[in-house]
Amino acid sequence: MSSSITNTEFMNQLENAVRTFVQEKLELVMREEISNFFAVEQPEETSNTRNGYYKRTLETKFGKIDDLKVPRDRQGEFQTQLFEPYQRRDGWLEEAVIRMYKGGMSTRDVGDFIEAIIGSHYSPTTVSNITGTVLQDVHAWQERPLKKRYSVLYIDGIHFNLRRDSVANEVIYVAMGVDEEGQRQVLGFLVGGNESAHGWKAFLQELYQRGATDILLGVFDGLIGLEDAFHSVYPKADVQRCVVHKMRNMFPKIRVKDKVEFMGDLKLVYEAPNYAQALHQFLAVEIKWSKIYPREVTSWKEDLPVLLAFYKYPAAIWKIIYTTNAIERTMKEIRKRLHPMNSVPNVDAAEKVAYFVLQDYNERWSERITRGFGMEETRIALANMFQERYGVKA
Question: Main role (predicted)?
Answer without folding.
Answer: Required for the transposition of the insertion element.
